TrEMBL record:
Membrane-spanning ranges: 21-45, 83-104, 124-155, 167-187, 218-236, 256-281, 302-323, 329-347
Organism field: Marinomonas balearica
Name of the protein this chain belongs to: Iron complex transport system permease protein
Pfam family membership, one: FecCD
Family in the record: Belongs to the binding-protein-dependent transport system permease family. FecCD subfamily.
């Protein structure tokens, strides 16, 4: 067997090239994309204040009347930014979960479990309490809080290397500590700030506007591009630090860079919606079990995780709005309810392996 040192340049390049897959959609990915498109379209055009049925919508389109002024406001100013936000945020959370699960090599290694989203919410609370509810300051506070939580977890979990299991345990402890601090801070601020924070803490897509969505979407888009550029290095890290280093990867630098991107992909959505659980935990695992990745059914590509994350959040938001007549729930309440069931299944399944 050849040692790592005996790998020549040609062998290294060949091994790296095998990890680079041409971007072609699988049948399952096309099916999920179609489901996402149909559900988004249905959520956009059907429901209260809009045409009562699909046949009515088709009749309006065929007659050329389209929508009256009220329907146009409901569709393009209220629903469209909400659905687009669900797609972008769901995709970002899915990619963030895939990055952290790859780094710690454990399906429980997502921002939900390791406390990074709780840290982002801590940053939001501190900004609201001491500065005020200013959009970009809240975004900066969320990112700062998420990075602070990640730094704490990394410092306490690092012992001559990074153990995925140790990082998860430390992350749970840091999450509990920050949750207690968030509760104390909520009780210490003014009633108005506490009520705003309480609504924020549930996680909701209510009040999303184009003015908020467009800059955040651009920021998330840049992060997703950077994450796509690091896919090859991430896959090499999955093969082990020694092999990745032998193939020319700066292990610690790459890991920190991926953690930075993953935290920002969690913190930025938290700044505008509040913490939305379950998506980053479940999306990569569901994508893997659906065999969405063309290269290896045991691994999950970032695109597959983003696709499933977007579909999950759009579905959860639809259920939050229309599952019970005359009752609308915050989308975070739906995701955390489903996430609790999924987490029990995931832990029991891991214990059997």
């Amino acid at each position: 067997m050849k040692t790592l040192q005996s790998l020549n340049t040609g062998q290294r390049v060949n091994m790296i090239e095998r990890l680079r897959i041409p971007f072609t959609l699988t049948k399952t990915q096309i099916f999920v994309l179609l489901g996402l498109f149909l559900l988004s379209t249905y959520s956009l055009f059907i429901g209260q204040h809009v045409s009562g049925s699909l046949s009515d919508l088709l009749s309006n389109l065929l007659s050329g009347t389209l929508f009256d002024p009220l329907q146009s406001v409901v569709i393009w100013q209220w629903r469209a930014p909400r659905i687009c936000a669900a797609i972008f945020i769901g995709g970002a959370l899915g990619v963030s979960g895939a990055i952290f699960q790859s780094l710690v090599k454990n399906p429980l290694g997502s921002p939900d479990i390791t406390g990074f989203n709780v840290g982002a919410f801590t940053g939001v609370l501190l900004t609201m309490a001491f500065i005020g509810v200013h959009f970009w300051l809240v975004v900066i506070g969320a990112i700062g809080g998420g990075l602070f939580a990640a730094m704490l977890v990394y410092l306490f979990a690092y012992r001559d290397g990074m153990s995925g299991f140790r990082l998860i345990i430390v992350g749970i402890a840091v999450s509990a500590m920050l949750s207690a601090f968030n509760m104390w801070l909520s009780l210490s601020v003014s009633l108005e700030t506490a009520m705003t924070a309480a609504l924020w803490s549930v996680g909701s897509l209510n009040g999303i506007t184009w003015a908020k969505l467009i800059p955040i979407s651009l920021f998330l888009g840049i992060l997703l591009v950077f994450s796509a550029m690091l896919v090859t290095r991430m896959k090499l890290l999955e093969m082990g630090d020694d092999l990745a280093a032998a193939l020319g990867v700066s292990v610690h630098k790459t890991r920190l860079l991926l953690m930075l991107i993953g935290v920002c992909l969690t913190a930025a959505p938290t700044a505008i919606t509040g913490p939305i659980a379950f998506i980053s935990l479940a999306a990569p695992q569901i994508a893997k079990r659906l065999n969405l990745s063309k290269q290896n059914s045991k691994k999950c590509s970032l695109f597959s995780a983003a696709l499933v994350g977007a579909f999950l959040l759009v579905t959860a938001d639809y259920l939050a709005q229309y599952a019970l007549p005359e009752t609308k729930f915050p989308v975070g309440l739906v995701t955390i309810s489903l996430g609790g069931v999924y987490l029990v299944y995931l832990i029991s399944n891991e214990s059997k392996n």
